[in-house]
Amino acid sequence: MKKLILLCIVIITSCKPAPEKEPKIKTYAEIHAEAIVVDTHNDILMKAADNGIIFDQDLTGQTHSDLDRWKKGGLDVQIFSVYCDGGAENAYAYANREMDSLDAVVSRNPDKIAKVANYKEMMAAVNENKIAAMFGVEGGHMIEDDLTKLEALYNRGARYLTLTHNVAPSWATSAADETTNPNLEQKGLTDFGKQVVQRMNELGMMVDISHVGEQTFKDVIEITTKPIIASHSSVYSLVASRRNLKDAQIKAIAKNEGVIMVNFHPGFIDSSFDGKEAAFLEKHSAESDSLIKSGMDEWYTLDYLYNKYSSETAVMRPPLSMLMEHIDYIVKLVGVDYVGLGSDFDGINLTPQQLDDVTSYPLITKALVEKGYSEENIIKILGGNFLRVLKANEANN
User: Fold this and answer.
1) pTM for this entry
2) For 57-92, how does the pLDDT look when each residue is reduced to its tens digit (9 = 90+)?
3) Cβ-Cβ contacts under 8 Å for 32 (sequence gap 6 or more)
4) Quick one: DSSP state of residue 79?
5) What SS3 state is found at 288?
6) How far apart are CA 306 and CA 294, in angstroms?
7) H-type helices in the chain, by residue range?
């Protein structure tokens, strides 16, 4: 009997415990598929209004974006920029025209895209495998100095207002104003401008400080009661563009619990790009001048030339790694909770290498994995940080 007991003891003690299964390491594609991917700035509505493009059709080779390609890129949430130049007449009417174009696409494709008013509706759309769509109005001039028009745009689905574009409204100064005209009598927000910010806070409409001047930024930080966003800006310390954010501004946004959505524009992420672009324009100046004199808009002229001479412009495009440097910089300066993606697709003439169009979002996830970011932090960068700010702006409204 003792031998039997001893034999049992030997058998039991000599057996190794079953090894615990190591957690499966997810691929970048799996992480991308599971994340809620948000892009806070896309200008396809400008092209729809200006050129009559219909973006629930295949526009491959014509634009950066269309409805099916957003899904191919794993995009879940798109904030559509509502934009016209600051000097345009009837800007409010133009804003509504652009909004009409999205509403038409949504009505034709209820199984693919839904316009949403808040976080709850956004998550419902995402869970139904639809693109969740909101508007972001790019430029305070589009409210035409009228708070009722601000509210009307909010009621149509605008969930942020970029306080200024380059040509600013009467009530706030832009980065262009403050850097090109240092003798401005008034900088920052006027009393009416402060009312705009206060009313946005009350509505739950995010205050967007991309394009604003430093004094306007300081005034916003002082008076806002909600987290703010930079819908499409990058890092000044890496590229000294007036459109980029200085370290003090990045820190102030982090303290405010806001978020900076990094812009893909080559001129904002590559310090050598402006020189390359100047040389390109000098080479093709006669053709450019002729097109502008014929009535073509300057932005569309540049777009035309870049496409026509694509072999020349291909070498001007910065590597994807330069975009990642801007994300890294913000993370190292203030932490991973304050950065996201604001591509400016279809509002920029060139994109970084590899990021040819909206199908290429997964390559950003791949680059984040390669840099050693955890799945949790990648999910924050791809959209989680923006969702936090959206919810915070809705609170108590």
Assistant:
1) 0.92
2) 999 999 999 999 999 999 999 999 999 988 888 999
3) 74, 361, 362, 365, 382
4) E
5) helix
6) 18
7) 2-14, 28-34, 44-51, 67-72, 91-108, 119-127, 147-155, 175-180, 191-203, 214-223, 247-255, 266-269, 273-283, 285-293, 298-308, 310-314, 320-334, 361-370, 375-379, 385-394
